[in-house]
Amino acid sequence: MNPFFAKKSLLMVALTTLFAATSAQADVTIISFGGTNQKAQAKAFYEPFTKASGVKIVASEYNGEQAKIKAMVEAKNVSWDVVELESPELARGCEEGLYEKLDMSKIGPKADFIPSALSECGIGIFVWSTVLAYNADALKGTPTSWADFWDLKKFPGKRGMRKGAKFTLEFALLADGVKPEDVYKTLGTKAGVTRAFKKLDEIKPYIQWWEAGAQPPQLLAAGDVVMSTAYNGRIASAQKEGKKLKIMWANNIYDFDSWGIPVGAPNKADAYKFIAFASKPENQKVFSGEIPYGPTNVKGTAMIDKAVAADLPTAPQNMKGALASNTQFWVEHSEDLEQRFNAWAAK
Amino acid sequence: MSDDQNKNHAEPHVTFRKVQKSYDGKNLIVKNLDLDIQRGEFLTLLGPSGSGKTTSLMMLAGFEIPTGGEIRLNNKIINQVPPHRRNIGMVFQNYALFPHMTVRENLRFPLTIRKLGATEMDRKVTKVLDMVQLDEFGDRYPQQLSGGQQQRVALARALVFDPELILMDEPLGALDKQLREHMQMEIKHIQQKLGLTVVFVTHDQSEALTMSDRIAIFNDGVIQQIGSSTAIYERPANPFVASFIGENNALSGLVETVAESTCRVRLDSGVYVHATLGDGVVQGARTIVSVRPESVQLNVQSLGCANRMGGYVKEITYLGDHLRVRVELAGRKEIMVKAPAAEHKHRFDTGDAIHVGVNPEHLLALAPTASA
Amino acid sequence: MTQYSATMPAPLDTAPEASLQSRLRRAERMNKLKYGALILPLAIFLMLTFVWPIAALLKRSVDNPEIITAFPQTSALLRGWNGQALPDDGVFAAFAGEMAQIKGTPVLAAAAKRLNMEVPGFRSLMMRTVRATPLEAGASAREVLIDADPRWGETATWQLLARNASPYTMRYLLASLDHKVNEQGKVVATSPEEAIFVDVLLRTFGMSFVVTVVCLLLGFPLAYFIATRPVKTANVLLMAVLLPFWTSILVRVAAWIVLLQSQGLVNQALMHLGITDHPLQLVFNSTGVYIAMVHILLPFMILPLYSVMKGISPVYMRAALSLGCPPFRSFWKIYFPQTLPGIGAGGLLVFILCMGYYITPSLLGSPNEQMASYFVAFYTNQTINWGMAAALSAILFVATLLLYAIYTRLVGSQNMAARAR
């Protein structure tokens, strides 16, 4: 890939919008991360929304690359209406003018939401967590901390981790005994970064890197790895399918996924309507029932069954010792830390 | 056979004995070939394509293995000797000069393999380049040379390592007529000067006639006749040779009486002629009498001939030094006559009655061959 | 003759001659126009799809518009600054003014992002500072800025701004070669923990080289075999060679994963045959990448080799044999050198294609097998650092050109000399 493919895809986008504009009008295009997450969204948000409003939804997926959105916005030829975003991308894109500043009056009362779920350009969809997941069949004993993830003697076998610096470095520091509240402070210093990489060196030959959220359950189920970092929702889905996978909640890292509207979205009004609909407590409740990600609407939390609530990142026992992902830190440091991570991983 | 090349040394240089070659296991391309090649002679294998001449040459070179029989070189059987151990120089149809080597490198190639010393190598290369008059072209690549020059390099390369004998596979086919005739003489001169044994394959009869000590005429995998140019031309052994070499008029008839070396033939038109007796012609057998167009006399010149016939002029073609006259004889038989222009120009016209005459020594009665 | 030509330049003749010349010229011009019109669409097409993108790519690798766009006045002032002591109040005032102007716009974000690239943390510095603007009337810009963040009181901060106050930068190209400009403005190597691209580029060349050599070793005998078959057989074999092109590269890569994974067919077969008792690691490491790359690129080696070999008459081998050269040596000395153009073309093709490969190593390899194009994609998609992506591409592009130059030098010239006329 090089920038010209981006330009080419820009041309494609331009062409498709051209055709879209002439043929179908007012289909709201919603882009999310796909997989079981998107299936749950379809059931909780897309289908009821179409039923309620008559507005059709074109659902599509991406891997979070901002290049395409940037290209579309810069060319003023945007074909996406609503995009699911992780926090650092949302923050960066908001500053760079890729996303609309949201008018909360069109969505709902601010007080209904977890305060940190609201930002200038986005509103949280759900709370998700990166946890330690393991294959109960393959593992003798129960891991209880990130130090156990690093303990090759106690738990021999390969480990799965997301290929990237984000969260990987945090877990390394947690395993090295850094307190959750000190993680980002430590990571902000040169010595802290070196400490994290040094810790990673210990298990480097045993790491199987993954890139898509659907991979860890597969790797765990196939026995390729015995433990892995994973998104809690993906593991829950695998559990539903009968896989004997388990989650260790201790020191998980949680974050929001948010809705954003690219600047120049063709159906801005419907996009707002959709976001408002998806932010309603009753719909968020349905979503959490489909995939155990926590609602951002406080009223939604109250509506959830107790059985379901226990598996959510927002459950009090799961929140204990949990670490909130520091968006500002990653906005600032992703460039240099990802570079250093690549350099480290390639050696 | 009236073979006039009887100056041969003790034994032939190359012998073919009952050599056979088949590619498909059913048909023989070469059938029981017997052939002796004398040391120092220039032998041409001549024949139409598919007659087995090239296959015979390739068997001698070692690129084809005989299906039967044996080939000897200096009285040693070489059937199983691979080509690179035969020490036979070969000139190929399109020269096969190595395109990635200069002329000099091409010439050094066989010498390098024979591990000659540098000075010896240079001496030989220079000598052979001098011989083919290409001293100044040693550093050129083959593609930078004209066709004739490439041909000479190919010849030089075949000569430079002093091979046992030289084989040439239609080496002049790609040259234009003038150059070809020039090269024919050049090759012949070099052959004579060095006393080389050369086996030359061609389908061009005039080339064969000019260059060869002996010519072997191939047809259908069999040598039809082998002999000197004059013998082949003047005393063809059978109607195939007669018609393949030069122009020929063939009239069929029946042998009435046979004398010592002549015979009397009743042609199919009923006319009687006296002819020279060819090999295997017996009384009462069918025969084909053959006469060269230039041996037929017309009108006044025909008066003294033993055989005279009347006919009509069908067509006259003016060819500068001579006329070609197509004459229709009795029984609608046509013969071609080649007459000197100086004597016959404007003496007769198409449709005129005319007399033709042939002396018995020019009229050859041949046994018709099945293969012809 | 001479007499005749002497009378030629008579004045009488000049008029018709001139008209003849002009007529000739006109006719030629018409021809040129016609041919020109015929190739014009192609020329335009090439300009748009080939020349222009490459030029844009090269420009992008040195492009540095963010700072001068955001702070034109400050940039101009900083160019005249000696870099020793803190800049004077005018610079502070201009900077504060321009900050206020671009407050809350993408221009500021772009500038902040650009500076953050050089010094992590600069983004928040900028964002904190902008909140202090616009200045209240009469306030000292210097005091307000330093009050907002003490780093504005350090020369290093201003030197960073000054270094980037020009429309072009060598930063991306230097970074692609693991170098950077340090605070003193000198080019130095990046620290070993962050150095990556020289290794990646060397790896890209190394892997491409290995793949090329393996393709050659496998492709040469096969091409020779096909070239020496009768036409009918050769056509069938060539179809077989081209067969992989009928499926998409992704499908082929996925198929290799299925075949090579630890419970895959290959491992099962090996264990069944008793060659090994535990599954071999054949995928997600260099083995898998090499196997798949060779598989994908082999046709690009075989086809040029075949076409060159097809043109080499078997008579050369016979000639060499007749000159007394044993068969293998004949092959090596006579046949092989004539296949060099094919080896060169095939090798170059495979090597260049290999250098640009992205999908195969990214799916079949570990982080240790990622090649330069992986990072081009990474910077394009993940971090939207198109300057870095362009710089890496530019380096690959230049390397390809160099390689091509070497190729024409080594194989081409000799060959062209041989083929002259």
Provide a compact summary of the structure.
The complex is a heterotrimer of chains A (347), B (372) and C (421). Chain A has 347 residues and is of the alpha/beta class.
Number of helices of chain B: 9
Radius of gyration of chain B: 24 Å
Percent helix range of chain C: over 70%
The biggest beta sheet of chain B reads: 6 strands, mixed
H-E order of chain C: HHHHHHHHHHEEHHHHHHHHHH
**Arithmetic mean pLDDT of chain B:** 88
The level-1 CATH class of the largest domain in chain C: Mainly Alpha
> Per DSSP, what share of the residues of chain B sits in E-state strands of 2 or more residues?
25-35%
Mean pLDDT level of chain C: 85
Q: Which homologous superfamily in CATH is the superfamily of the largest domain in chain C?
A: MetI-like
Q: Largest interface, counted with CB-CB under 8 A? A: A-C, 41 and 48 residues
Task: Note the gap between the termini of chain C.
Answer: 35 Å
In the sheet with the most strands of chain C, the strands line up as: 1-2
Overall outline of chain C: extended
- Main sheet specs of chain C: 2 strands, antiparallel
Please identify the structural class of chain B as seen in this structure.
alpha+beta
Characterization of this structure:
The complex is a heterotrimer of chains A (347), B (372) and C (421). Chain A has helices at residues 3-22, 35-53, 67-74, 87-95, 146-150, 168-175, 183-187, 190-203, 215-222, 232-240, 268-278, 281-290, 298-303, 306-309, 316-319, 327-345; strands spanning 28-32, 57-61, 82-86, 123-135, 159-162, 207-210, 227-231, 245-260, 294-295, 323-324. Chain A is α/β, with parallel strands linked by helices. Chain A has 2 domains: 3-127 and 256-314, D-Maltodextrin-Binding Protein, domain 2 (3-Layer(aba) Sandwich), CATH 3.40.190.10; 128-254 and 319-346, 3-Layer(aba) Sandwich (D-Maltodextrin-Binding Protein, domain 2). In chain A, strands 1, 2, 3, 4, 5, 6, 7, 8, 9 and 10 form a 10-stranded mixed β-sheet that branches. In chain A, helix 2 (35-53) runs antiparallel to helix 12 (281-290) and helix 6 packs across helix 8. The longest helix of chain A has 20 residues, at 3-22. The model of chain A is unreliable at 1-12 and 14-25 (pLDDT under 50). Chain B is α+β, with helices and mostly antiparallel strands. Chain B is built from 9 helices and 20 strands. Chain B has helices at 53-61, 103-113, 118-131, 147-159, 177-194, 205-211, 229-234, 239-244, 341-344, and strands at residues 14-22, 28-37, 42-46, 68-73, 76-77, 88-91, 165-169, 198-202, 214-219, 222-227, 249-258, 262-267, 272-277, 286-291, 297-298, 307-318, 322-329, 334-340, 353-358, 364-366. A 6-stranded mixed β-sheet of chain B has the order 6-7-8-3-9-10, sandwiched between helices. Chain B has a 5-stranded mixed β-barrel with strand order 11-12-13-20-14. The longest helix of chain B is centred in the middle third of the chain and has 18 residues, at 177-194. By secondary structure, chain C is an all-alpha fold. Chain C folds into 2 domains: 65-167, no CATH class; 197-420, MetI-like (MetI-like fold, Orthogonal Bundle). Chain C has helices spanning 2-7, 11-60, 65-70, 72-79, 89-101, 106-118, 122-131, 141-148, 155-163, 171-176, 197-227, 231-242, 249-260, 265-272, 286-310, 315-322, 327-355, 359-364, 372-382, 386-419, and strands spanning 179-181, 187-189. In chain C, strand 1 and strand 2 (187-189) form a beta hairpin. In chain C, helix 4 (72-79) packs antiparallel against helix 5 (89-101). The chains are: A alpha/beta (347), B alpha+beta (372), C mainly alpha (421). Chains in contact: A-C, B-C. Chains A and C meet through helix 1, helix 3 and helix 16 of A and helix 2, helix 6, helix 7, helix 11 and helix 19 of C.
